[in-house]
Predict the 3D structure of the following.
Amino acid sequence: MGRHGDALKVRVAAPPVDGEATDAARAALAAALGVAPTAVTIVGGARSRLKRLRVAGVDVAAADRLLAPFLGPTEP
């Protein structure tokens, strides 16, 4: 979906049942960053709509560059 303040908003088609939506969001982020889904781990909010994820193998500058095509301008 794009930026949401300091966060990214990701929309997936999977239902929020048994972690399916979380797994789909992890897979989408991994695909966009060119890493394996196992490189994306949840560090907070596992059962919440708001999650904190850690991505191994990609630095911040590379992540910004790889995600840029999916994001609009930064909201104030």
Summary: Residues 20-33 form the longest helix (14 residues).
